[in-house]
Amino acid sequence: MKATLSFLLTLSLCWQSNRTSAQTTTTISSPDKAVVLSVSNTPAGQVAYRVTYKGKKVIEPSTLGFALSKPQVSLTRFTIAAIDSATIDETWKPVWGEASQIRNHCKELRVTLADQSGSGIQMQVRFRVFNDGVGFRYEFPTQPNLSHFVVADELTQFRLSADHRTFWMPGDYDSNEYLYNTTKLSEVAALAAIRKEKDIALQSVIGDNAIQTPLLFKTTDGLYISLYEAAVLNYPIMHLQLDKKTLRLQAQLTPDAVGNKAYLQTPSKTPWRTIIVSDKATDIVGSKLILNLNEPSTIADPSWIKPQKFMGVWWEMHIGKGNWAKALGKHAANTQNVKKYIDFSAKNGFDGLLVEGWNEGWEDWFGNWKEEVFDFVTPYSDYNIDSLTAYAQKKGIKLIMHHETSGSVTNYERRMDAAFQYMVDKGINTVKTGYVGRIIPRGEHHDSQWMVNHYQRVAERAAKYKLMVDSHESAHPTGLHRTYPNWMASEAARGSEFNNAPTLGITPEHTTILPFTRMLGGPMDFTPGLFRFQLNQFDSSRTQRVRTTLAKQLALYITLYSPLQMVADLPENYEKHMDAFQFIRDVPVDWDDSQVLAAEPGDYLMIARKTKGKDSWFVGAITDENSRTLPLSLDFLEPGKTYEATIYRDADNADWHENPEAYTIEKKRVTSKTKLNLRLANGGGFAIQLTQL
Ligand code: NOJ
Ligand code: CA
């Protein structure tokens, strides 16, 4: 690691001539000079930042600041008290991931601001300028005039230079499980979008002009711009309020149950606000900026953390074959049924088996907002957990625990230690948590500071018991899997289960937008791998369906990265397509290298990944509702070597709507000089395994 501090040296500091309206502008560029950040102190005393990329406007001058309610002070006018800068250039190795090493190379600028209103408060803004964007955060150092304080509002602004094409979701303090809308920025209409998506039951919608991050823009001069946040700890999730006249977005922090935004104590720092920018769409998907802004791992010996492929006693409840609750009959988590899944998982070389509905409480878990529903340690009488863990162990499978909190988070906090110890006693080392419903008893939001602290506590406490976590209905991820590598994945977006939703479900384009947005924050437990597309298998009245081809379901294992990858469908549905299932058996969940080969948000995506520690590569490509042909050059393969390519592609007559199960499997000898041209059907995709011969 090399970090140099060079006070003022790298800065161009220019003072305007008139001293009474002095305006300072400090400029700093990314290592490759493409991204330029300038920070100015306006004559009125505001501090604004501006970002350009290769000379094009990214963020127009946008102001910084806070409103505190305790002490009551508005931090909006400042004197710049000091400026310093540094260069960071280090390479680090994640415990698992899309690449075995990551370079963190940026220029840092730290601006110390002294409040002009007489409060005596000082704060710092730390900017980091990377080749692919900017991150900045506020820091409140220890100081005489500020100790404990309450944030009423963060006043950070992001002013866009034009009415860009925007990929957005409605602002909602409790749900990120929306489809993305694509409109001009000025055409954001959050409430109309929500009305269209009648299937969203739980909402804390903020208003017509409020949208969520991650947010993506495509400009008419060829830039892709992402707004998001990194390292959200002890602070609420940021939503954005749009002023359509000025195309200005302003931070709108998630309030707590009594309307405050954050309770902080010096020294403290906010999350990073991130602006990722490139003229190549592929670079947005491949950006490591958010990970680089997170702190290194807190787990000294991560040898117990293992990427996994897992099946689940799960989808069969979603599509009406079985139930979570024993009293409803057809109880899926019964010993016999779970054994069948263990057998199938073992036969196919998977690592884990999730079992939902194993514990008492499901008769009354939803809608009544009861605080004491689950105790997380009492299995149903037809679920013999000891015999099952022993059986699983004999077969080389680990059961995955399920803790649905039903939003009763105080109950979960009280019972967490006992629940984690129970897992350890049963030899179970991964837990899927869930936060369906309102957060009771206080009425916090899923995105509030209190809940952000809860998710962190779960990750930390789980690490003490050497447990891995997969959280559902948690706040959007912000790269914390670097710091807590046992918090391996989260749902935190509209996942595959929405294929079963009565209304909009999952559109073919949804998975082409996620990698540009939600996935920038971390792995998603999307639960790919559905092989049956009409979901009326056990209930003929169901009209819900999956809107992809079978080949696209395979490709999702590559295009949606996760170290916990579910094999979501039922054994009987896989048994009909064992040749295609071979891809799911073979695909790894941990990688040495990943290359985004082609991408356009809302349209298509193609990624190649190299297996961790092996000379084999996998390629996945997906398209939206339009069929297309993607040229693929295999020049990432080792030159001079021959590989066998197994290509799983849409058959020529495949189509997500009419003929989703039509696929073709071909084998070919290829080298780094081979060029392929593969057609993807409407809503289709392809998946390739490349093994060195
Ligand atoms: C919602 C989760 O996303 C889903 O995976 C789970 O089966 C249900 N809640 C029940 O906990
Ligand atoms: Ca969910």
UniProtKB/TrEMBL annotation:
Its cofactor is Ca(2+). Coiled coil: none annotated. Residues 590-690 form the Glycosyl-hydrolase 97 C-terminal oligomerisation domain. Residues 28-296 form the Glycosyl-hydrolase 97 N-terminal domain. InterPro entries: Aldolase_TIM, GH, GH-type_carb-bd, GH97_C, GH97_catalytic, GH97_N, Glycosyl_hydrolase_97. One of its GO terms (molecular function) is hydrolase activity. Residues 1-22 form the signal peptide. This is Glycoside hydrolase family 97 protein. The lineage of its organism: Bacteria, Pseudomonadati, Bacteroidota, Cytophagia, Cytophagales.
